[in-house]
Amino acid sequence: MCNAAQVETQALRAKEAAKPTWTKIHGRTVDVETFRHPGGNILDLFLGMDATTAFETFHGHHKGAWKMLKTLPEKEVAAADIPAQKEEHVAEMTRLMASWRERGLFKPRPVASSIYGLCVIFAIAASVACAPYAPVLAGIAVGTCWAQCGFLQHMGGHREWGRTWSFAFQHLFEGLLKGGSASWWRNRHNKHHAKTNVLGEDGDLRTTPFFAWDPTLAKKVPDWSLRTQAFTFLPALGAYVFVFAFTVRKYSVVKRLWHEVALMVAHYALFSWALSAAGASLSSGLTFYCTGYAWQGIYLGFFFGLSHFAVERVPSTATWLESTMMGTVDWGGSSAFCGYLSGFLNIQIEHHMAPQMPMENLRQIRADCKAAAHKFGLPYRELTFVAATKLMMSGLYRTGKDELKLRADRRKFTRAQAYMGAASALVDTLKAD
Predict the structure, then answer these.
(1) Which structural domains are found in the chain, ordered by start?
(2) Residues 202-206: what's their mean pLDDT?
(3) Who contacts 23 (Cβ-Cβ below 8 Å, separation ≥6)?
């Protein structure tokens, strides 16, 4: 047992030692062996490959990051050790980002975001006031508002309000009003943008053993779930906020993010006081809150799924342009109403191309993104709301059906082998007699 454990430990250490310690940014192979990224381990996702677009996307606004990049030493790397990635894709992204900055499309839009946020806050107050009289309906209303808080904190987490106010904006909507952790969200969501729809690296694809969106994931899902996943997916989303509530709080405590823990405590205190002041009983208050939690999960999960789950999985070495066009979908992209309804997740292609661009500006770059996709022969999926919903739900149904058929065929083949083996053994026995 000890020897086996030692061998496994040594194998893991050897694997870690074999990992590249460089990344390529603007043509330079930069040695990052001793560099510790201030934002966490996201740099690990780009070791041994080109990270130019990721750097421009996450740090193009930050002069300090550019200065830090210049101080990093270069490392000689054999051409054979650099994976094949389309440099013309990197150049196109650099050109587009520069063009959008020149047009002022990355400048914060605090007035529009503030009006949006104030409307959500007033709606939360109205739902609390109605909780004593119609706790379920009020819970659905506050769940919708909490989902909108999720969209608003999404804007702050992507620094749409600039470096000074963005995280404060995020903490207000994610921490105080929604009871979550802004840091946990950024850690998970930045990896989603860095490696969109990459199995094993995009945490948003970890839906097994309950749901599967492609043949690889389907192998990890039991038969009963594959049979029902197209019908149970939406109701099951009502449970995911409850599940993540534990994960988020554990993260904040383990990381000693006491300011976030304080905001979570303040969230519960605020809503307890508000419900009491509105005259809600304990049972109506709990009904209101739990309904809101469940509906929030369904609302957020549904709109996120429309834009991601049913399209291709991409390789880890895909360029930013490839992973964006192959791993995301637009629906109702020209509609401002659809934008606010879904927190602008309906223009997901543009958001993934420029995640730090204010959401209200994303419609202005649709033509540029479409032209880039056409230029390089990549898909640009523009769907209606109905078509996007059909793609998502039929994808679940088809994936489950195909995997179940494969398993049934495999079992038939195994039984046939067993029968043939038994017949062969019987023949051999008769011959011996």
Answers:
(1) 20-85 (3.10.120), 110-383 (no CATH)
(2) 78
(3) 29, 30, 32, 43, 46, 47, 48, 49, 50, 51
